[in-house]
């Protein structure tokens, strides 16, 4: 079976869904849900997208986000990759956590934003986990109905909402009594919107397939420039050259671990590309970055070093 199309575009609203491998659980306890969301926020800082809605179910997740660059694949590669490494270490397992590629649907904001957000927020009700979406903790429903949600970009959400919190709650509860499924309107497996919207996106996909992706190349150039700045700041801070750092045959030095952490957090480089820069196998890159992340939470000295380096290139 051919892979479904993946339209990469800037200013694109995506509904993302991914299941656990063999439909197994991907979250065991509250710490797993929290960790997953922390990686979403790290990805947002790194790849610069707007985050509108989410629903984390025990065996799968739904995300609604809008790209600012043509980098949806890089965004999801980071989130799924980082969380898989964390989950495997945390639960002493190995191998794949998610089932194949993530599913992405490009959504017409004007026609389907409200309907799709309701569909996502009603997932726990349809699954029989709760009777009221307000009873489910791991979704953005609370932020839409007047509660606090530190994850979503609600200033942007309000641009697509024509309902106050009470009206939105009634809108969602109406969906329980009269269930609808916007996924039935998806065209060609990856487009959800009006006929003019679909035609415009299909034309855009044709350009993506037949011509150079200029936006993507620009993003890569930006990553190269930023990675060079980060490497310069880290090597200067620790008084080593990149070749010295890369050539070490001992366990990853603290300088190398910090460099890995910063490249993963502030550039769009893949783990394999970062591994080539620092002299590590790509499979060890996530572990090195995760170790610094853990140390920063408990070691004030490491936390100070990292923040000082960040201030040197972030201003």
Structure description:
With 315 residues, the chain is α+β, with helices and mostly antiparallel strands. It folds into 2 domains: 13-210, Transposase IS200-like (Alpha-Beta Plaits, 2-Layer Sandwich); 214-314, Chromosomal Replication Initiator Protein Dnaa, Chain: A, CATH 1.10.1750.10. It is 56% helix and 10% strand. The protein is built from 14 helices and 5 strands. The protein has helices at 30-47, 72-90, 109-121, 123-126, 141-144, 154-157, 165-177, 195-210, 214-238, 242-247, 254-266, 271-278, 282-298, 300-314, and strands at 13-19, 49-56, 60-67, 103-107, 191-192. A 5-stranded mixed β-sheet has the order 2-3-1-4-5, with helices on both faces. A hairpin with a 3-residue loop joins strand 2 and strand 3. The longest helix has 25 residues, at 214-238. The termini are far apart.
Give the topology.
Blueprint: E1 13-19, H1 30-47, E2 49-56, E3 60-67, H2 72-90, E4 103-107, H3 109-121, H4 123-126, H5 141-144, H6 154-157, H7 165-177, E5 191-192, H8 195-210, H9 214-238, H10 242-247, H11 254-266, H12 271-278, H13 282-298, H14 300-314
Parallel strand pairs: 4-5
Antiparallel strand pairs: 1-3, 1-4, 2-3
Helix pairs in contact: 1-2, 9-11, 9-14, 11-12, 11-13, 12-13, 13-14
């Amino acid at each position: 079976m051919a892979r479904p199309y993946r339209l990469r575009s800037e200013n694109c609203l995506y509904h993302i869904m991914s299941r656990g491998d063999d439909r197994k659980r991907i979250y065991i306890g509250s710490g797993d849900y929290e960790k997953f969301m922390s990686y979403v926020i790290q990805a947002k800082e790194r790849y610069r997208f707007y985050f509108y809605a989410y629903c984390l179910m025990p065996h799968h997740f739904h995300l609604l986000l809008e790209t600012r660059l043509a980098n949806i694949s890089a965004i999801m590669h980071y989130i799924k990759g980082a969380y898989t490494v964390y989950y495997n270490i945390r639960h002493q397992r190995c191998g794949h956590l998610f089932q194949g590629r993530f599913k992405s649907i490009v959504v017409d904001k004007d026609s389907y934003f409200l309907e799709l957000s309701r569909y996502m927020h009603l997932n726990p009700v349809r699954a029989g986990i709760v009777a009221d979406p307000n009873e489910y903790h791991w979704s953005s429903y609370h932020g839409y109905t007047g509660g606090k949600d530190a994850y979503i970009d609600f200033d942007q959400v309000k641009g697509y909402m024509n309902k106050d919190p009470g009206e939105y709650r009634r809108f969602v509860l109406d969906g329980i009594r009269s269930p609808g499924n916007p996924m039935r309107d998806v065209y060609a497996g990856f487009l959800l919107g009006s006929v003019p919207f679909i035609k415009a996106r299909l034309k855009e996909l044709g350009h993506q397939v037949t011509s150079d992706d200029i936006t993507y190349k620009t993003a890569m150039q930006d990553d190269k420039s930023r990675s060079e700045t980060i490497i310069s700041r880290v090597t200067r801070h620790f008084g080593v050259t990149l070749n010295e750092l890369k050539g070490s045959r001992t366990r990853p030095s603290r300088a190398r671990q910090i460099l890995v952490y910063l490249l993963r957090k502030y550039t769009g480089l893949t783990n394999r590309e970062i591994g080539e820069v620092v002299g590590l196998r790509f499979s060890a890159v996530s572990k090195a970055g995760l170790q610094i992340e853990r140390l920063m939470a408990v070691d004030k000295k490491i936390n100070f070093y990292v923040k000082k380096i960040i201030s040197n290139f972030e201003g």
